[in-house]
Design a protein that fits this description.
Elements (H helix, E strand, L loop, with lengths): L11 H4 L5 H36 L6 E5 L6 E6 L4 E4 L3 H28 L3 H4 L4 H8 L3 H11 L2 H20 L4 H6 L8 H15 L3 H22 L42 E7 L10 E9 L7 E7 L2 E7 L8 E4 L2 E7 L6 E4 L8 E6 L7 E6 L5 E4 L7 E5 L9 H8 L5 H8 L7 E7 L4 E6 L32 E5 L3 E4 L21 H10 L7 H7 L6 H16 L6 H10 L9 H13 L5 H10 L3 H18 L6 H4 L2 E2 L16 E2 L11 E2 L2 E3 L2 E5 L6 E4 L17 H6 L9 H6 L1 E9 L1
Parallel strand pairs: 1-25, 3-6
Antiparallel strand pairs: 2-3, 2-25, 4-5, 4-18, 5-22, 5-23, 6-7, 7-8, 8-9, 9-15, 10-14, 11-12, 13-14, 15-16, 16-17, 19-20, 21-22, 23-24
Length: about 750
């Protein structure tokens, strides 16, 4: 520390310059040490006290509060799960109250989300977050949000303005959340632009990553297009199903034994970010209503990414889940329509070698860094391209073209409009204008019809995310595929719809759309369960969401047993083979065989890009592959002999708070026992899992229901921080009260917001 930088030097240091300086210095240090110790003790005590207050304080959810900005009183009824049911006499007050509820329950989550979106985490977390901020700032979400804010239609602008006022009213009247006390800072006011930024970063997270494009490009260049298709197959033809649940029979591509996985520095991520959704028309249901199910798969944190809410005004009534920071209902239903979403896994990101860059298009971003000097970084930006480091060349940059970067229409407008849609026809007109990352929209209405349509910006880029374009392609224009030409299933009462991030079209479809879809194993299993019976009810759909059978893992186990018995090796092989041979393919908590197979799959087949190539070897074993598999199995059997864990432990995971890595584990949520893996309908793997489960019986909203893994509140001191975990693990799906009678019957407390 630079002594005297903020204050004058201590005069006692001058007095110490006497004939016996050592004695004077020792005396001064003794006095200073005592004073410093007293000060540090006082500071630590004050810090501990304020944190302790924060750990036990919770938002006020009952009584009456005066809130500036309202036009009329608003009622927020909390049910037994602490879910707010908001009733207002006008839409301004409705969105104000929704912002108030989110600000009361999730204020720190709101602030953390916008800091991540804008690349401003280092302002709070210091140099450790600077690299993430620099990467995030490349996309210029702040600039995109400003452009979208200026282009918003007046009703949508009014909605997010009212929502922002509500968040700020809660921040000003409710106790400061403990995370702010721990990190010693105050949140800035929420703005309408912040809501847009959150919606943009959601689209960015769901888009095809340019890091993945670089990794695929390395394979493309090293192995060529033919081997690329072996290493990154578009799908697994053996398990392909269409969106109507029919088997999409195609010959499996011939495996090329010389297409071994290359050793590349970067590898595509194969996280389980995605979703399951399926629906059945009224002619396929027991009660004559359409049915729809949805369970998104995302990073599992506490508080969770979803916030359950029921909002009603004379103009609209919708219920379901939203993302904190976004007004309205993102996934759910209104009085006549229900909708579900899954990520379409389609290529949206075009990457180019940089070539010649104009000096006029460079900008410098400044970063405030806590406890350190400010930092800077330079970015190249044009109206449709932005620069990123080239993962395959440390000294070069590349240009990224992501359609939402230049898009002025906000995805929030789609959310607010869908909340008011009266039927599937109206919903399709709305999603035709959706301008986020491509999504599968699954729709069901009171007429008993169900439908499916992909919507979003999908550039007709011949690369489809497989390789980096040379600089000479920069002038090229890749217009988005028209909405009418994207995959769809027409509305019908006798239809079923299946969507699990798999390939959503048959062989005759004219566009590739993706570098690689998610493997179709979850979609295959959903279709298999739907084909087991002619009619369904909400309870059957809810049980399907808990299914832990993995078709591909069962196939791998049987193939390995068959191969191992044909190539005898040393003991203790017999016991392990017997366990695998008896396994039914289910990742149940008490299964030891499931834990064995999961270790085997990772050891023998590896991860992308090895997985698909090694799976092909296992299916059609030649002599060379047999020798490799034999060696891999030797290693696996030696390792597996020491494994005695059940899947409950081997596949279990802790629900972590974002601050847990900073030695704040007391903020964490519960431990989830292993149940399902990354290829089961009940998806769960370390860090990722079903983040929400919902089933709607369209027209009888008391059937089915919705569940989240932890609790509605983001406050550790609240009884609703982790209160829903036990029901989640047990597979419970509680109805979401909808309508005055149901809400009154389940009311646990009421807060009235009154205008000043």
């Amino acid at each position: 520390m630079n002594v005297g930088f903020f204050e004058r030097p201590d005069p006692r240091l001058v007095l110490s310059a006497d004939p016996a300086p050592a004695v004077a210095v020792a005396a001064a240090l003794k006095r200073d040490a005592l004073a410093l110790g007293v000060c540090l003790f006082a500071i630590a005590g004050a810090y501990a006290a304020t944190v302790e207050v924060g750990l036990h304080s919770t938002a006020v959810t009952r009584g009456s509060i005066v809130a500036k900005g309202l036009y009329a009183p608003v009622m927020i009824v909390r049910d037994g799960r602490d879910i707010p049911h908001i009733t207002a006499t006008n839409e301004h007050d409705l969105y104000f109250a929704e912002g108030y509820a989110q600000g009361s329950d999730r204020l720190f989550q709101l602030d953390l989300s916008r800091r991540y979106a804008y690349g401003r985490l280092a302002e709070v977390f210091g140099t450790k977050a600077l690299a993430l901020d620099k990467a995030q700032r490349a996309v210029d979400i702040n600039g995109i949000a400003e452009r979208q804010l200026r282009a918003l239609a007046p009703p949508d602008r009014d909605a997010i303005v009212a929502f922002s006022q509500g968040v700020n009213a809660a921040a000003g009247s409710q106790p400061l959340p403990v995370e702010f006390r721990m990190l010693l800072y105050q949140p800035a006011p929420w703005t309408p632009k912040d809501s847009l930024a959150v919606s943009i970063v959601v689209s960015l997270e769901l888009a095809d990553s340019w890091h993945d494009v670089f990794a695929r490009d390395a394979v493309w260049r090293q192995r060529g297009p033919r081997c690329y298709d072996t290493l990154f197959p578009l799908s697994d033809a053996r398990y392909d199903v269409t969106t109507d649940g029919a088997r999409n029979a195609q010959p499996a591509p011939t495996h090329r034994s010389n297409c071994n996985a290359p050793e590349v520095a970067a590898r595509p991520r194969r996280d389980a970010i995605g979703s399951n959704a399926w629906a059945a028309g009224s002619r396929r249901s027991v009660d004559g209503h359409a049915l729809i199910a949805n369970d998104p798969h995302l990073i599992l944190t506490i508080p969770g990414i979803w916030y359950i809410v029921d909002v009603e005004s004379p103009q609209m009534h919708a219920a379901g889940a939203t993302i904190p920071g976004i007004p309205g209902v993102v996934l759910g239903h209104n009085e006549r329509l229900a909708w579900a979403l899954t990520n379409a896994e389609m290529a949206t990101t075009s990457v180019f070698e940089a070539g010649h860059l104009s000096r006029r298009s460079w900008v410098t971003e400044r970063f405030r860094v806590r406890f350190a000097r400010d930092a800077g970084a330079s970015y190249y930006r044009t109206a449709r391209d932005f620069s990123v480091p080239n993962d395959n060349s440390s000294s070069a940059i590349a240009l990224v073209r992501w359609p939402i970067y230049a898009e002025r229409r906000s995805a929030i407008a789609t959310v607010l409009a869908l909340d008011r849609a009266r039927d599937i026809s109206a919903a399709l007109r709305i999603v035709a204008n959706y301008r986020g990352s491509p999504q599968n929209f699954i729709l069901a209405d009171r007429s008993g019809r169900v439908a499916h349509h992909v919507a979003g910006l999908v550039p007709d880029d011949p690369a489809w995310g497989r390789y980096v374009h040379p600089a000479r392609d920069l002038p090229a224009n890749f217009p988005p595929i028209p909405f009418a030409q994207l995959p769809r299933e027409a509305a019908a009462r006798d239809a079923i719809v299946v969507s699990a991030n798999n390939k959503a079209y048959a062989s005759a479809y004219p566009y590739r759309l993706s570098a690689q879809f998610e493997p179709p194993y979850r979609a295959y299993r959903i279709a298999e369960l739907l084909h087991l019976r002619p009619r369904y009810d909400a309870a059957y759909f809810a049980r399907m969401q808990l299914d832990t059978l993995s078709p591909i893992d069962l196939e791998i186990a049987r193939d390995v047993v068959r191969f191992a018995r044909a190539h005898p090796q040393q003991e203790p092989r017999a016991d392990l083979l017997a366990a695998l041979g008896r396994w039914d393919g289910r990742f149940e908590p008490d299964s030891h065989a499931a834990a064995l197979e999961h270790v085997l799959r990772g050891a023998v087949l590896g991860d992308a890009p090895e997985f698909s190539a090694r799976l092909g070897e296992l299916r059609g074993v030649d002599d060379a592959a047999a020798r490799d598999l034999e060696a891999d199995l030797d290693g696996w059997f030696s390792f597996a002999f020491e494994q005695r864990r059940a899947w409950r432990e081997a596949g279990g995971m802790r629900i972590e708070h974002p601050l847990a890595p900073m030695n704040f584990p007391f903020l964490n949520g519960a431990w989830l026992p292993g149940a399902g893996d990354e290829y089961t309908i009940h998806l769960q793997e370390p860090g990722f899992a079903q983040s929400l489960r919902a089933v709607w019986d369209v027209g009888d909203w008391g059937r089915g229901g919705i569940a989240i893994p932890s609790g509605e509140s983001g406050e550790p001191g609240s009884p609703h921080y982790t209160d829903l975990t036990r029901a989640w693990v047990a597979g419970g799906l509680q109805p979401l009260p909808f309508g005055p009678a149901a809400v009154a019957k389940n009311a646990a407390g009421t807060l009235v917001l009154r205008p000043r």
